[in-house]
Design brief:
The protein is mainly α and 117 residues long. The protein is built from six helices and no strands. The chain has one domain. Helix 1 packs across helix 5.
């Protein structure tokens, strides 16, 4: 995390968030975890299986934290910016699905390097 940096908007945080997910293996783990979160939520509601809803945090955070602690070797943003981080997981998921992620990563790197966040 940038030393003492306070993000006032979601989109400025998201640029930082992307730079903390530089390794494709970490992003893949996040993608799997977020996909499982969505699947558990939808399936849990449809089947009225509340255990599926109860495992959502383990799916999402489990995959993400493995990516951060063992691949990126950085601290998950969840600890400092829980809501921005949660929202960013879903935005990154969308950017991966729609093929926008490479462009967004480049924009984020430039913004962070130029201190435009």
């Amino acid at each position: 995390m940038a030393s003492g940096k306070k993000y006032r908007t979601f989109w400025s945080f998201y640029q930082y968030y992307l730079t903390e997910h530089g390794d494709v293996k970490n992003r893949t783990l996040h993608f799997i975890g977020t996909g499982l979160v969505i699947a558990c939520l939808i399936t849990g509601i449809i089947l009225r299986n509340w255990w599926l809803i109860a495992v959502i945090p383990f799916c999402g955070y489990g995959f993400a934290w493995v990516g951060h602690f063992f691949i990126e070797k950085n601290k998950p943003a969840t600890f400092t910016y829980p809501l921005y981080s949660l929202g960013s997981d879903f935005v990154m998921f969308w950017h991966i699905i729609t093929g926008q992620l490479p462009k967004k990563l480049e924009e984020a790197k430039k913004a962070i390097n130029n201190n435009n966040v």
